[in-house]
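User: Please fill in residues for this 603-position structure.
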């Protein structure tokens, strides 16, 4: 009886508390705001730029903070991130209107700045699954990990349709085919945002980079996409249409130009097409100091981009410089006072941002929910990662059905720089902006450990970088490929496997060893020579922390289902090569992927 009355009191209390919450009216809030407060909402500052001047978040009523790929917070565990988040968000309470700030981070393959997070395969690998269900699961797990640290906005998915794999961001793209990208991009948005954006496990997606980022000439990062409008619409627009239909409320403008005009200043595409034709109700955020690229004249650059339809500027330089947040705010204020930017445009931008904050439930739940902390790096999420990995592997060659290997083999030789290196497995955007080799992150399973976990106790597993210890008749798993890189540093003239990788495979083959090559890379590579010298080849992309998924395929716990999301060229001269080209003669076509005879897969 006593328990019943306690429960009843709790129930009544909850109802009355809920009844007190009045829905926030954007127009009413907008009316209360001064011009300065509105300009603050339109300003997003990078953590590095503001960490020694946190009071500026209050002084300027800043609307948003981001952590860039190189932001250094003191404690990069999930708890450390949650504390950092909470302490910054607390500052919003000190502003006049107490509007919560929105915090964004590049959670592009899991919550990849957090030590101990599950790192999921990069998008190119998810593209190889051709499976929206697994992409949605990955995004749900990512959202939970992000929310576990209090953060509520992920700068993902990247829906670039990559047409030239020289581009160093190829791995951030689901592939070369607009249909594949639109399907998986929408699944990713759904997974991040959940059934309702205000759910405790949902985060706001940020679809990027609008638009044409994967189509630049020679695959140059931040380059120029030369295409007529019909081509632009056919290749790059569908992913945005679908993402918006899936509920996306933020989109990031791209660094690239379209026929020589920078996207950050393209009114036709940002306003007429996106907000008009596509009826996008959310807000457009700029990319990292993207406004500055419009003109050496900063005032002119700000005017162009805000009038083109940019709603929030991403600003990463510390105060005092010509392009810093204080400068952005004073410049935009001048432009408004001179009527070069209308109040209507400002109100439109601010109400879009506020609407998203309200839809996210940010006004009600500002701080991290400690109960969600345990989601970060959870065993359940590692299982999702493992599943995504095994679905993403593409079997390119399997001479005499060498794969799957027997779990009870006497000896398995493991070699190559990628075999026991979690950093190489994860690639760029892992703890560091550019990623790095070695033990960058706690937790996870290297491919070598995964192999050891999979084979019988009696099987001898040897490991060396250079394949020493292998004898004629042995089977060797050789893990080769690219070293980590990210935007600006990943563009390549030559995508051949390194000489070391090629020599390793050749030496083993010359010894009479049966060679299974596993390629860790963010894109198709030029594998002439190596392909002939190996007995089996698997494209494993950048699988992330859950290397067990690779062993699952190699040893037949899972028969490969992955299919190429990008045409695999024979040589550099063929690039760009894309499905549907008039002349199309790749080494392996888009959609290619072998599997095992089913009986063997089950052994
Ligand atoms: C990248 C974006 C990223 C942003 C924030 C930019 O350089 O192009 O993809 O979201 O930085 O880190
Ligand atoms: C940041 C990245 C950003 C890049 C752009 C880096 O310092 O950490 O997040 O994308 O700069 O220039």
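Assistant: Residues filled in for all 603 positions:
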């Amino acid at each position: 009886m006593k328990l019943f009355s306690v429960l009843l009191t709790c129930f009544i209390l909850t109802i009355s508390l809920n009844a007190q919450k009045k829905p926030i009216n954007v127009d009413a809030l907008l009316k209360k705001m001064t011009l300065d407060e509105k300009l603050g909402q339109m300003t997003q500052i990078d953590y590095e730029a503001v960490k020694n001047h946190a009071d500026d978040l209050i002084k300027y009523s800043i609307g948003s903070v981001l952590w860039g790929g190189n932001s250094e917070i003191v404690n990069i565990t999930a708890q450390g991130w949650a504390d950092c988040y909470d302490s910054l968000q607390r500052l919003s309470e000190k502003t006049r209107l107490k509007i919560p700030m929105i915090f964004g981070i590049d959670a592009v393959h899991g919550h990849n700045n957090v030590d101990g997070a599950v790192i999921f395969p990069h998008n190119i690998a998810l593209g190889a699954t051709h499976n929206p269900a697994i992409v949605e699961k990955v995004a749900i797990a990512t959202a939970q990990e992000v929310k576990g640290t209090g953060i509520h906005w992920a700068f993902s998915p990247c829906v670039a349709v990559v047409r030239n794999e020289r581009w160093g961001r190829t791995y951030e793209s689901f592939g070369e085919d607009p249909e594949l990208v639109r399907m998986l991009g929408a699944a990713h948005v759904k997974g991040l945002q959940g059934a309702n954006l205000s759910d405790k496990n949902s985060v706001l997606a940020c679809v990027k980079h609008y638009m044409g980022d994967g189509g630049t000439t020679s695959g140059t990062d931040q380059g120029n996409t030369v295409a007529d409008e019909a081509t632009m619409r056919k290749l790059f627009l569908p992913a945005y249409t679908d993402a918006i239909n899936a509920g996306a409320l933020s989109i990031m403008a791209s660094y690239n130009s379209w026929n020589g005009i920078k996207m950050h200043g393209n009114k036709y595409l940002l306003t007429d097409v996106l907000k008009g034709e596509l009826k996008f109700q959310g807000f457009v955020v700029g990319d990292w100091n993207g406004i500055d690229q419009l003109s050496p004249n900063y005032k002119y650059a700000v005017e162009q981009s805000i009038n083109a339809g940019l709603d929030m500027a991403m600003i990463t330089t510390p105060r005092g410089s010509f392009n810093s947040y204080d400068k952005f705010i004073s410049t935009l204020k001048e432009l408004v006072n001179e009527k070069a930017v209308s109040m209507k445009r400002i109100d439109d931008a601010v109400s879009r941002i506020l609407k998203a904050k309200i839809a996210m439930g940010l006004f009600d739940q500002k701080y991290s929910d400690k109960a969600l902390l345990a989601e970060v790096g959870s065993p359940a999420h590692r299982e999702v990662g493992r599943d995504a990995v095994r679905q993403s592997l593409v079997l390119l060659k399997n001479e005499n059905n060498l794969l799957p290997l027997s779990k009870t083999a006497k000896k398995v030789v493991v070699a190559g720089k990628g075999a026991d290196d979690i950093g190489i497995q994860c690639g760029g955007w892992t703890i560091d902006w550019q990623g790095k080799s070695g033990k960058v992150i706690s937790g996870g399973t290297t491919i070598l450990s995964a192999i050891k976990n999979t084979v019988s106790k009696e099987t001898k597993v040897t490991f060396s970088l250079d394949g020493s210890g292998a004898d004629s008749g042995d089977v060797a798993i050789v893990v080769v490929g690219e070293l980590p890189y990210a935007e600006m540093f990943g563009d390549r003239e030559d995508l051949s496997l390194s000489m070391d990788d090629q020599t390793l495979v050749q030496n083993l083959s010359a010894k009479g060893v049966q060679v299974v090559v596993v390629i860790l890379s963010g894109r198709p590579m030029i594998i002439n020579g190596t392909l002939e010298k190996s007995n089996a080849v698997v494209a494993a992309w950048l699988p992330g922390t859950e290397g067990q998924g690779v062993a699952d395929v190699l040893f037949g716990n899972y028969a490969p289902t992955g299919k190429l999301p990008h045409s695999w060229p024979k040589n550099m001269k063929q690039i760009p090569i894309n499905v549907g080209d008039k002349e199309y003669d790749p080494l392996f076509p888009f959609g290619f992927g072998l599997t095992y005879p089913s009986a063997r897969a089950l052994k």
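For context: The pocket of beta-D-glucopyranose (ligand 2) is lined by residues 68-70, 288, 433 (CB under 6 Å).
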